[in-house]
């Protein structure tokens, strides 16, 4: 129903490990936009951690069955005469794409942002919900064909 995003993400991860000297199987730096996704009843819920991002710096777009989440983390207000000692927080524009299956209703996505957490609720499409199909019987006007 909900599929992971970028097919090149694994290549990027491996290249990052090689360039940073990290041991294989370890990840030296977390994703700037970590995500959890789960199904709850009749909807999928996708949760992104976006600490330090203001709500007006979040952009959500759906084109065909691709949901794009973009967020910009801007630099903190540091006085001009300050000397930076540690700068580990990633800054800039970050983006994730989710490919939504046909069984999800992309027209009714709800988004909520609170305390640095963006929550998206994506309903299951009506056509994808389980339903009963009645089996009819032939009426008395049924014709028999003989050979």
Automatic annotation (TrEMBL):
Q: InterPro entries annotated for this entry?
A: A-crystallin/Hsp20_dom, HSP20-like_chaperone, Small_HSP
Indicate the segments forming the SHSP domain, all copies: 26-138
Query: Per the similarity annotation, which family is this?
Result: Belongs to the small heat shock protein (HSP20) family.
Q: Per its record, how is this protein called by name? A: Hsp20/alpha crystallin family protein
The organism named in the record is Kribbella deserti
């Amino acid at each position: 129903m909900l599929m992971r995003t970028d097919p090149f993400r694994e290549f990027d991860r491996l290249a990052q490990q090689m360039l940073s000297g990290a041991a294989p199987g370890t990840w030296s730096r977390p994703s700037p936009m970590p995500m959890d996704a789960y199904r709850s009843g009749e909807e999928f819920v996708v949760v992104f951690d976006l600490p330090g991002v203001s709500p007006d710096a979040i952009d959500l777009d759906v084109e065909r069955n691709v949901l794009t989440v973009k967020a910009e983390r801007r630099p903190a207000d540091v006085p001009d005469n300050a000397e930076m000692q540690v700068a580990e927080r990633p800054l800039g524009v970050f983006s994730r794409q989710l490919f939504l299956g046909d069984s999800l209703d992309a027209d009714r996505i709800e988004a909520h942002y609170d305390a640095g957490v963006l929550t998206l609720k994506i309903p299951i499409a009506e056509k994808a919900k389980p339903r009963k199909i009645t089996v009819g019987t032939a009426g008395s006007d049924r014709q028999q064909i003989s050979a």
